[in-house]
Amino acid sequence: MAMSEHMVNDLAQQYLDLVLEANKSINLTRITDRDEAEMLHLEDSLVGLDEVNEAPAGLYGDLGSGGGFPGVPLALATGRETVLVDSVKKKMAVVSQLIDQLGLSNQITTCGDRIEDLALDRPGSFSVLTARALSRLVSLLELSSPLLVRGGRLVCYKAQVSDEELNEALAVQDLLGMKLISERKTLLSDGETARTILVFEKMARARLKLPRRVGAAQKTPLKPRP
Ligand SMILES: C[S@@+](CC[C@H](N)C(=O)[O-])C[C@H]1O[C@@H](n2cnc3c(N)ncnc32)[C@H](O)[C@@H]1O
Asked: Which of 138, 126, 180, 131 has its CA nearest to residue 155?
């Protein structure tokens, strides 16, 4: 049964309190002020909710989830089965305990591996992925492509996207079987923090073997093939 908006909000607030408390002993977020965290973690996490809801039904993954943002608020708001992935195992172990404390471990699980390793374990399994503050778009497309089902969506949370960053991604989207389908700009409630939500759809198999070796997507991004 879907949770009421009130329950979702209540659990998200409780999760944020637990993160800020845990943050005193392990670095889960650089934001320590409660009000700032409410805007930059809870409100910002839900900026892409419509785009996540528009993706096909099925498994949701938050790539480079850190302290569980935007993954946990989006999991609560959508009710989707969710996997949070971050290569820092210690962070994922703490996040997993917090999820357990809230009784959410049936719905939300964590994976303390690199995204490239998750792609080897669970290829083509995700209907929707999010990534906030993780990498340049070109790298996000490469990391996501092998994880997504055909028709699945990658929802990227960005502050601002330069023409250079966007063009670099557009130049390899065909190679990766991905396609930009929407771009939306908005401001958070302070009226000045800018967000851009870009959505890419998995249209076809990538035309190269993925994942490449660990680290390559981020360290040596793909260039268009002649
Ligand atoms: C700047 S943090 C952002 C955390 C969170 N998404 C947020 O917006 O609050 C980026 C996170 O991505 C993780 N990360 C970077 N590359 C990764 C990879 N290839 N596989 C898994 N995690 C990765 C890092 O460990 C780090 O926790």
From this structure: 131
Q: Tell me the helix, strand and coil percentages in the chain, rounded to 5.
A: 40, 20, 40
From 114, 79, 112, 76, select the one nearest 96 (Cα to Cα): 112
- 39-62 pLDDT per residue, tens: 999 999 999 999 999 999 999 999
CB-based contact 80:59 (threshold 8 Å): yes
Pick the atom of ligand 1 nearest to 65's CA: 6
Tokens, residue 78: 């959508």
Ligand 1 site residues, Cβ closer than 6 angstroms: 64-67, 69, 85-88, 114-115, 132-134
CB-neighbour burial class of residue 125 (10 A; exposed 0-12, middle 13-18, buried 19+): middle
Going by the annotation, the residues of the binding site for S-adenosyl-L-methionine are 64, 69, 115-116, 132
Nearest ligand 1 atom, CA 214: 19
Q: What mean pLDDT is reported for the chain?
A: 96
Cα–Cα dist 44/155, whole Å: 13
In the numeric block, the tokens 């028709």 are attached to: 151
Which residues are documented as binding site? 64, 69, 115-116, 132
Nearest atom in ligand 1 to 88's CA: 25
Tell me the CA–centroid distance for residue 139 and ligand 1, in Å. 13
Could you tell me the distance, in angstroms and rounded to a whole number, from the CA of residue 226 to the centre of ligand 1?
A: 32
Classify domain 5-219 at the CATH class level: alpha beta
- Model confidence pTM above 0.95: yes
Q: Is-contact 54 201, C-beta < 8 A?
A: no
